[in-house]
């Protein structure tokens, strides 16, 4: 006997092959609430929904109250800051996510951003593109070396460690990391040292944040922390925007305390047009593209779909958040 079909609400576009896997077993509504013309369909589908799959939308306790049959939310992301985890636990709703499959790609992006920021790649490529390359560039447009510099990493999980491997093994960079606990990474033995935050900030030439957004990390980088960084240091954020107090980052840039910043994530996304970070001459800003390659987004969609189908079948999903 085939299992009963359930109701699935897809709240962000899924590749066709993954949508087909779900539709073969369950009844599917696709409605992206971030698109104003689809919001009503999203809300109308909530009361029947037993599974939700998507990303980049804040799921609130009020929204959960409108979805009393919900069994699982499968987010197509590793970060879970858009979800009320305590309320989900209270309601017995599983939350699954996509760790691992995006780690190396996100580390590639973060390292590319680090290189681009230190070597002023975007600014200087624009100089050529705009026909302003009319002489050999001088000291005013020189960048900063990357190889051999001391790298500080805030949040030494999957992505932080992948950044550290690139830095320590590829660029000869000593790594100091701030994390809840020391982590044993055999290939980085002696090259990545668990270090108190204040010391990481005081000693690192380049600081990379790969932190999740939690109550403990919200606003972690504020005036004191930026003020404690080495004069001229570089700050890169590839974790979540709200772990940084953006006004404090701007003060640090404008006062010359920081040399430059490279940011893939922002407190508000998409970055508002009037954000001073958008046009700041010493900020390299990306539109949250850590995992945005064809291969990795496909792998994330596949894992998120597998997680959803396993949960709806009463099986233990491959990647349960917190489990
Ligand atoms: N820019 C982008 O496109 C992307 C951004 N991300 C972001 O990167 C984050 C990290 O992903 P990933 O590496 O896979 O996650 P992990 O859970 O593997 O790593 C997070 C690390 O941060 C540590 N940590 C948590 N809270 C604190 C704290 N208060 N102080 C110090 N360390 C802390 C964790 O320690 P412990 O394990 O002990 O809690 C863990 O080691 C995601 O949560 C997401 O927000 C992810 C993918 C792409
Ligand atoms: O920001 C991306 C994620 O997967 O989390």
Automatic annotation (TrEMBL):
<feature type="domain" description="D-isomer specific 2-hydroxyacid dehydrogenase NAD-binding">
    <location>
        <begin position="111"/>
        <end position="290"/>
    </location>
</feature>
<keyword id="KW-0560">Oxidoreductase</keyword>
<feature type="domain" description="D-isomer specific 2-hydroxyacid dehydrogenase catalytic">
    <location>
        <begin position="8"/>
        <end position="319"/>
    </location>
</feature>
<dbReference type="InterPro" id="IPR050223">
    <property type="entry name" value="D-isomer_2-hydroxyacid_DH"/>
</dbReference>
<dbReference type="Pfam" id="PF00389">
    <property type="entry name" value="2-Hacid_dh"/>
</dbReference>
<dbReference type="InterPro" id="IPR006140">
    <property type="entry name" value="D-isomer_DH_NAD-bd"/>
</dbReference>
<dbReference type="GO" id="GO:0016618">
    <property type="term" value="F:hydroxypyruvate reductase [NAD(P)H] activity"/>
</dbReference>
<dbReference type="GO" id="GO:0051287">
    <property type="term" value="F:NAD binding"/>
</dbReference>
<dbReference type="GO" id="GO:0005829">
    <property type="term" value="C:cytosol"/>
</dbReference>
<protein>
    <recommendedName>
        <fullName>Glyoxylate/hydroxypyruvate reductase B</fullName>
        <ecNumber>1.1.1.79</ecNumber>
        <ecNumber>1.1.1.81</ecNumber>
    </recommendedName>
</protein>
<comment type="similarity">
    <text>Belongs to the D-isomer specific 2-hydroxyacid dehydrogenase family. GhrB subfamily.</text>
</comment>
<dbReference type="InterPro" id="IPR036291">
    <property type="entry name" value="NAD(P)-bd_dom_sf"/>
</dbReference>
<dbReference type="InterPro" id="IPR006139">
    <property type="entry name" value="D-isomer_2_OHA_DH_cat_dom"/>
</dbReference>
<dbReference type="GO" id="GO:0030267">
    <property type="term" value="F:glyoxylate reductase (NADPH) activity"/>
</dbReference>
<dbReference type="Pfam" id="PF02826">
    <property type="entry name" value="2-Hacid_dh_C"/>
</dbReference>
<dbReference type="InterPro" id="IPR029752">
    <property type="entry name" value="D-isomer_DH_CS1"/>
</dbReference>
């Amino acid at each position: 006997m085939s299992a009963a079909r359930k109701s699935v609400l897809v709240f962000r576009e899924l590749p066709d092959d993954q949508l087909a896997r779900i539709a073969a077993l369950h009844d599917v509504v696709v409605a992206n609430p971030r698109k104003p013309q689809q919001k009503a369909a999203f809300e109308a589908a909530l009361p029947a929904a037993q599974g939700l799959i998507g990303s980049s939308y804040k799921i609130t306790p009020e929204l959960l109250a409108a979805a009393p049959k919900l069994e699982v939310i499968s987010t197509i992301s590793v970060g879970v800051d858009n979800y009320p985890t305590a309320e989900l636990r209270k309601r017995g709703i599983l939350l699954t996510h996509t760790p691992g499959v995006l780690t190396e790609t996100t580390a590639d992006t973060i390292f590319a951003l680090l290189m681009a920021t230190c070597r002023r790649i975007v600014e200087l490529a624009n100089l050529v593109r705009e026909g302003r390359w009319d002489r050999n560039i001088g000291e005013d447009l020189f960048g900063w070396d990357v190889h051999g510099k001391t790298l500080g990493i805030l949040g030494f999980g999957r992505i932080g460690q992948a950044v550290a491997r690139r830095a320590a093994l590829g660029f000869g960079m000593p790594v100091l990391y701030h994390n809840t606990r020391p982590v044993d990474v055999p290939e980085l033995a002696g090259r990545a040292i668990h270090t108190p935050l204040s010391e990481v900030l005081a000693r690192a030439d380049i600081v990379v944040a790969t932190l999740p957004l939690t109550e403990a990390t919200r606003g972690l980088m504020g005036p004191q922390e930026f003020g404690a960084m080495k004069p001229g240091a570089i700050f890169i954020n590839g974790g979540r925007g709200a772990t940084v107090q953006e006004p404090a980052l701007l003060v640090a840039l404008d006062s010359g305390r920081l040399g430059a910043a490279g940011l893939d994530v922002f407190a508000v996304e998409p970055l508002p047009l009037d954000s001073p970070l958008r046009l700041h001459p010493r900020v390299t800003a990306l539109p949250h593209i850590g995992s945005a390659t064809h291969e990795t987004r496909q792998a994330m969609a596949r894992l998120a779909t597998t997680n959803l189908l396993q949960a709806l079948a009463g099986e233990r999903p491959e990647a349960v958040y917190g489990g």
